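During the no-cost extension, the postdoctoral fellow (Dr. R.K.) reprocessed legacy sequence entries with the updated structure-token encoder. One reprocessed record is reproduced below for audit purposes.
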Amino acid sequence: ASDGQRPLNRSDVPSSPALIYLPPAYDSPANAGRRYPVVYLLHGYPGSPLDWFRAVPTQQIMDTMLADHLIQPMIVVAPNANGGWLTDSEMLNKAGGPQTETYLTRTVVGYVDAHFRTVAARAGRAVGGMSSGGYGALNLGLRDQDVYSVILSEMPYGDPGRAALALLGGSRARWAANSPDRYIPTMIFHHRTATDLLTGPDDSQRREAARLARMLRARGQPTAFTLVPGASHTWRSAGRELPYALTFA
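Re-encoded structure tokens follow.
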């Protein structure tokens, strides 16, 4: 974390705070040798890492689920996915600009692994998000299979939108290479990646999530389509869906 005034890192993204949840007893001497899996949560746009702890009670959800032994202890990281000050980066590497995908998958993950007792391998990492962050989680998880083994995509969509063409220098090839609904049928899977696509009955992305799940299953990937009662396309609904996502992870 920083005040944003330090020099840009190699991804050309200004340093910015990330919010990190550490499980209870992380600092206990009895756990000094224990390493923990990590769930990375990407916010939507407009948004910030705070949304995962203010709009969604992630800390309370984690505390309760751990106390009830519904999940194993894990670290949760909510990084800034904007690629700058409230920029709709779609978590892409911008042509001639901030390399947000590189920042999230290399810079942030490298920092967390270096400063916390993580399971520093793909088997110990999940990437999740809601709305544009759900798209980002799906795209990054599939494009960076060496980094993540689990994808938790809430309210997902299958491409970054036509406006993202400008971010990619107008290249339709790069746009298609960042559109899961275009590349899933022909992509090369170097690893099996477990994916949960979560939505609600009143979410406009319900059919899209179901279609993406069918596409991944057709490629032999372990995929769940989770329809959460009462969920729509809001941060409140993201909170409804998060316990299901964490259980899947």
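Confidence is low (pLDDT under 50) at residues 1-8. The CA atoms of residues 34 and 117 lie 7 Å apart. The remaining legacy entries will be reprocessed before the final report is submitted.
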